[in-house]
Specification:
The chain has a seven-stranded mixed sheet with strand order 14-15-16-13-12-17-18, with helices on both faces. The chain contains 16 helices and 20 strands. The longest helix has 18 residues. The radius of gyration is 24 Å and the shape is globular. By secondary structure, it is of the alpha/beta class. The structure holds ligand TXE.
C-alpha cells in the first residue's frame, strides 16, 4: 500500500487523497503480507467519490485456517513472553501509531469517507491510547495465594484464553481493531482480526506496525472478507473467543455459531440511545452536544443519542437554536479540513438512510432541516446526505424505534421525569444515554434509571480507556476498555497443593 511515510510519497503534504489508487490488498499472516488462496476478490470504494480504491482478496476457510494455525503457533511464544516485555512491545507500537497518525488518518478517511478533521483527532489516537492503557496493565495481571492450614495452600492464576477472533464494523475500522487487540495481546492471547469488508485497509497497517514493534509473527493476523470469512472464524475450533462489533442481528448469528464450540464472546452492538434535555439545562451546551451525538461521523456511531427528548417548556427554543446550527454544518469532501459531515459508507447504506428520511417525511413528524442530497455537482459521485432533524416525533414511529446509523435526529417533547424515563427505556437496545440538567439529584436519578451501559451527564460519547464501554439488553454482551476487560481475555486456574499425605476416604 504505497511506500510507508516516505516524504517522497507526499502529494500536497498528504500520503493519501481523494484520487488515491492502491495495488490489490491481501491478508497479513505470520508477520507478512500474503495472498489469499480463495482466488476471489472484492473492491473497496471511496465513499466520497464512488471510485474504486483497490481490489481486496477474500479469505476463504482455508485462509482462515492458515491464520488460526499461525496464531496458535504464536500463542506458544507470546503467552510465555514476560508481561513486561509484552508491555514494552505494545508501547513501541503506540509510538509508531502516534508518529504515523496523519498518514493512517488519511487512509481511514479515504476508505471510510469520514472527515479528516475527525480521523486526524480521534480514530488513531483513541486506539493508541487504549493500547497504551493495556500495556500499562499487562505486568499487573496477577493471581492470588490462599493459605489452607494445616498442610495445604492454593494458588489462583489468570491465564490467557488462546487465539481470539476480532470482527470489526466499518465505522471506526482501525480504532475497533486496536480496542479489540490491545487487551487480547496484553493478556498474552493472539488474535486473528477481520475488518468489515467495506473498510479493509487500515487493519493491515496495524498488523504491519505491531510486527515492526516486535510482536512475534502470527500474534496478530488479518484476514479480509465478508460474513463468510467471519463465519469461518466463529466456527473454527481453534478460536477460543470471538469479539464482534456490529449490528444486533449479526451478534445473534455470531453467538449461535460460537455456541457450537462454546467460545467466549464479547459483543459491541447497535443502539438507539436517549438524549434527554430538561428545561434547566444550559441550552447552548445541550444543542452543541445534540449535534455531536447525532452528526459526528455522519451519524454512523453506535452510541449516538438519536432520540432527543426535550422538556416541553424549552422545546421551541431548543429547536430554534438547533436549526441554524445544523444548516451551517459543512457537508462535503472529507479531505477538506473544513468539512464537518463526510460521506456515508456506501451507496447502499445511503439509500437505507434516505429510506428512513422518506419514512419520516411521510409521517406526522415535522422536518426541521436537511435529509437531502447536496446540490453541489462535485459531490454527486459520493454518498452524501445533509444532516436531518425531525421534530414532533412520537415513540411509535419506525425511524424513532430503529437504528438508522446515519445523520437523522428525532426530537420528541416530554412533560415529566417519570414519563421520559419510561419512554427512554422502551427499547430493546441499551447502549448509551445522556441527560442535560443543572439539577444534581435529578441527573443522578436519571443515571440510575436509564437502562444503558454508558450514561453521560452534561456530556456525550466521551470514552476514556479507563472506563468500560458496552451495552445493556440487545446492545451487547461484555465490555471493552477498563479493568474488567482483563477478565474477559483471561481465564482463572486454581492450583491446590497438598504438603502432607493424601487423606483417603476408603
Ligand atoms: O455491522 P454488521 P456493520 C454497529 C452499529 C451498526 C453496525 C454497523 O450500531 O449496527 O455496527 O456496522 C461481520 N458471522 N456498531 O454494518 O453488518 C461483517 O463482515 C460472522 C456497534 O459493519 O453487523 C463485519 O465485519 N461475521 C459498535 C461485522 O460482522 C459476520 C460501534 C459487522 O457487520 C456475520 C460501531 C456472520 N454471520 C458499530 N455477518 C459498538 N456498540 O461499539 C456479518 N459479519
Amino acid at each position: 500500500m504505497g511506500d510507508r511515510d516516505s516524504t517522497a510519497n507526499l502529494k500536497n503534504g498528504r500520503h493519501y487523497g481523494a484520487d488515491s489508487r492502491l495495488p490489490t490488498q491481501g491478508l497479513f499472516i505470520h508477520g507478512e503480507a500474503v495472498s489469499a488462496t480463495s482466488g476471489e476478490t472484492f473492491e473497496t470504494i471511496n465513499p466520497a467519490t464512488g471510485q474504486t480504491i483497490c481490489d481486496v482478496q477474500q479469505a476463504g476457510a482455508e485462509d482462515v485456517d492458515r491464520a488460526v494455525k499461525s496464531a496458535r503457533e504464536a500463542f506458544k511464544v507470546w503467552s510465555r513472553t514476560p508481561a513486561a516485555e509484552r508491555a514494552r512491545i505494545l508501547r513501541h507500537a503506540v509510538d509508531i501509531l502516534r508518529a504515523r497518525n496523519d498518514e493512517l488518518a488519511e487512509l481511514e478517511t479515504l476508505d471510510g469517507g469520514k472527515p479528516l478533521q475527525e480521523t486526524l483527532a480521534v480514530d488513531i489516537a483513541s486506539g493508541a491510547d487504549v493500547i497504551e492503557y493495556y500495556a500499562g496493565l499487562a505486568p499487573a495481571i496477577r493471581g492470588e495465594h490462599y493459605d489452607l492450614p494445616p498442610e495445604a495452600f492454593a494458588v489462583v492464576s489468570r491465564e490467557p484464553l488462546g487465539v481470539c477472533a476480532g470482527i470489526g464494523a466499518w465505522n471506526y475500522p482501525m480504532q475497533i481493531a486496536m480496542w479489540k487487540s490491545a487487551p487480547a495481546l496484553a493478556c498474552g492471547n493472539t488474535m486473528v482480526f477481520k475488518p468489515a469488508e467495506l473498510t479493509p485497509l487500515t487493519a493491515l497497517k496495524l498488523a504491519e506496525i505491531y510486527h515492526e514493534a516486535g510482536l512475534p509473527p502470527g500474534a496478530f493476523n488479518v484476514v479480509q472478507g465478508d460474513a463468510r470469512t467471519g463465519q469461518a472464524m466463529t466456527c473454527h475450533p481453534g478460536i477460543a473467543k470471538v469479539t464482534l462489533t456490529g449490528e444486533a442481528e449479526t451478534g445473534k448469528l455470531v453467538m449461535a455459531d460460537a455456541a457450537k464450540t462454546l467460545k467466549h464472546v464479547t459483543f459491541e452492538l447497535g443502539g438507539k440511545s436517549p438524549f434527554i434535555v430538561f428545561a434547566d439545562a444550559i441550552l447552548e451546551d445541550a444543542v452543541s452536544a445534540a449535534l455531536m451525538a447525532n452528526f459526528y461521523s455522519s451519524g454512523e456511531v453506535c452510541s449516538n443519542g438519536t432520540r432527543v427528548f426535550v422538556e416541553r417548556p424549552i422545546y421551541d427554543s431548543f429547536l430554534a437554536k438547533l436549526k441554524p446550527r445544523v444548516e451551517a454544518m459543512r457537508v462535503g469532501d472529507p479531505f477538506d479540513p473544513e468539512t464537518q459531515v463526510g460521506a456515508l459508507i456506501s451507496r447502499e447504506h445511503m439509500e437505507k438512510v434516505q429510506g428512513y428520511v422518506d419514512m419520516a417525511k411521510a409521517s406526522n413528524a415535522t422536518l426541521v432541516v436537511g435529509g437531502e442530497r447536496p446540490s453541489d455537482p462535485a459531490l454527486s459521485g459520493g454518498n452524501f446526505l445533509t444532516p436531518a432533524v425531525f421534530a414532533d416525533c412520537t415513540d411509535d414511529m419506525r425511524f424513532v424505534q430503529e437504528e438508522i446509523f446515519g445523520p437523522v435526529m428525532a426530537v420528541l417533547p416530554f412533560e415529566s421525569e417519570a414519563e421520559v424515563v419510561e419512554r427512554a427505556n422502551a427499547t430493546d437496545y441499551g447502549l448509551s444515554g445522556a441527560v442535560f440538567t443543572q439539577n444534581f439529584p435529578r441527573a443522578h436519578r436519571m443515571a440510575r434509571e436509564i437502562e444503558a451501559g454508558s450514561f453521560w451527564i452534561n456530556d456525550y460519547n466521551i470514552t476514556p480507556p479507563e472506563v468500560p464501554f458496552g451495552g445493556y439488553k440487545q446492545s451487547g454482551i461484555g465490555r471493552e476498555n477498563g479493568l474488567q476487560t482483563i477478565e474477559s481475555f483471561t481465564q482463572v486456574k486454581t492450583v491446590y497443593a497438598n504438603l502432607g499425605r493424601f487423606q483417603g476416604m476408603y
